[in-house]
Design brief:
Strands 1-7-2-3 form a 4-stranded mixed β-sheet, with helices on one face. Strands 4-5-6-8 form a 4-stranded antiparallel β-sheet, with helices on one face. The protein starts with 13 loop residues before the first helix and ends with a strand. By secondary structure, the chain is mainly beta. The protein is built from 2 helices and 8 strands, in the order αββββββαββ. The longest helix is centred in the last third of the chain and has 8 residues. The protein is globular and about 80 Å long.
């Protein structure tokens, strides 16, 4: 294959043909990505020891091993019902699969309401309400 300028042919290796939008491909970013606006997930894959729920008047924390079962109900408004020893935590919102996955992996550290912006819904989970009832 001859060059368009008449020079010697140049073959592009596989590593040269890959493009990247990273400044220095393969290096770690200098800053961590922003945490999700609906809560916190334990860093580095470590299991969460405590799960905090932000309520209107304050915070309620549970040892992570007290969360026994959770059920995700799909619909126009999704529900994530979490059973603890003597309490039932009900999370209402939309696109709650990411929150459920954090529970499944034992990495959910904190969950809070994230109100929609005036310009429209944010991507990802939207937590509209969190209630805790003693059973």
């Amino acid at each position: 294959m001859a060059s368009a300028l008449g020079g010697a042919p140049h073959f592009v290796s596989h590593s040269e043909s890959r493009m990247s939008i990273e400044v220095f491909p393969g290096t770690k970013p200098l800053t961590r990505p922003a945490p999700p606006n609906w809560g916190e997930i334990s860093p580095g894959g470590d299991p969460a020891r405590v799960v905090r729920f932000a309520l209107v008047g304050g915070w309620v924390s549970f040892p992570a091993d007290q969360l026994k079962r959770w059920e995700h109900t799909l619909g126009e408004s999704e529900l994530l019902t979490i059973k603890a020893d003597r309490d039932e935590i009900v999370v209402e919102g939309r696109d709650l699969a990411e929150v459920r996955a954090a529970l499944d992996l034992g990495r959910l550290c904190e969950l809070r309401v994230n109100f929609p912006r005036p310009t429209g819904a944010r991507p990802g989970p939207q937590v509209r309400r969190i209630t805790i009832e003693t059973t």
